[in-house]
């Protein structure tokens, strides 16, 4: 029984809190007095709810001219760190007062969440006017002169289609935003005519923006009042824009080919007959501008471009860490804003870890005014030594447009305990630490002596030997010139020589069937060869440098891709050989062919200079 009481109390408090923030109401609004023969509006407003089955009251003393026309609105506020929102649905009715007197408008009704709600009765007084008949005739003429979507008699083909009868309009949700802050762009078609065909001939351009499309199925199923006129409206396109620069950015006009349906009206003894005809038109939308405010300066060093509202947490996929075993450290960012364009933060791993480039996994969904979701940034690392380590605490900084300030999320330190595992340091780690050797210390057994060379045989040899060496070099040079005339032969000899020398040891592991040692030796050979070939120190070798230098050397795109793919294959197989199923002999031949092809490449003029 106590449990039931607690549940009932919790439900009651939840309902009270909901009502306090967004009270549901259904009310009627109308003028107190109306002149006989004049038009007037009655508006029924449903606040903070969605309803079904709206029923308007019957008025015996007035004639209904239009309605119900439904429109919706939504608003939100942010005060002292707390947000609140409200919505309303309006049902607008237009009547014409026909009888003087004092009348009561009965209640309208609507169903909300299974409950039937009604409005309170209201009183309207209709005052007699001597000009009522004349006003009625004048208003009828005005109504006939204006195009009505549901009235073919007003859509006569003898009249042109006016600029106020059919147009495309670009609307921006906000006139001013910060850089990278979302702004919603909506392109709408407004018409008083039926449309038989619609085609986009020129899309508006969004220069200076990144675009997030929102799926939209255009249809003329919305009613909207603009500048006091009623239109049928279709939403052609809706997208979320992220400005990439400050200043005044303009959305340029689009162009559309539209077939409009008009009517040829004929008077007959039996009434007026209407025959539909089509008119082809080209419509150009308006331009729309947004003022982009630059992000405040100075920008924090920890700011990586995130604009919106975010939370951050970290996670390890494996708490049982061992040396030479791959693990993943995940950086998880959740929130709303330009989440798809956030750069991966820099994480300081211990120098005893072999760390690979981060990989992003983004899951987002566009909402009404922004994009929400989660981005997982995974850092793969392999501990090379056992012991206690730590990934230090850090700060993730984002800019919050609601407050206009940079806000920090503190990331606590992550303690790591690494146990001894089977294996050996990865080749990637060894290559990073092989460029500088330790300084040799100890006794070198040096001796100090004095002697005179002038006049001795050694003295004259210093003159004769260089002359003999010069003559020998000239003979050798002439011989080399003759051999180098055959360029194909020289390239083939050099390619075979380099391939055999660098791959000889790796070939021995193929015969022994040692897959781990084979890929380690093959990767060392590839890294070492590229270091010598391109003149890059081993400590500075990475795939970006290799790709750039191969391109400047004159290597075509296909061979560059094959070379980098071989490095990826060897790296993956080196620390996970059990997952590499390729035949080692075939991989060996592919590596030898790549080295041979690289040797056959003629250096570009830029590389020679």
**How many structurally independent domains?**
4
Uncertain segments: 3-21
Number of helices: 10
Shape: elongated
* Total beta strand runs: 31
Task: Using the CA coordinates, give the radius of gyration.
Answer: 40 Å
Strand residue percentage: 35-45%
- Biggest sheet record: 7 strands, mixed
Cα(first) to Cα(last) distance is: 90 Å
What does this structure look like?
The chain has 609 residues and is an alpha+beta fold. The protein is built from 10 helices and 31 strands. Strands 22, 24, 25, 26, 27, 29 and 30 form a 7-stranded mixed sheet that branches. Strands 11, 13, 15, 16 and 17 form a 5-stranded antiparallel sheet that branches. Strands 1-3-6-5 form a 4-stranded antiparallel sheet, with no helix packed on it. The protein starts with a helix and ends with a helix. Residues 3-21 have low confidence and may be disordered.
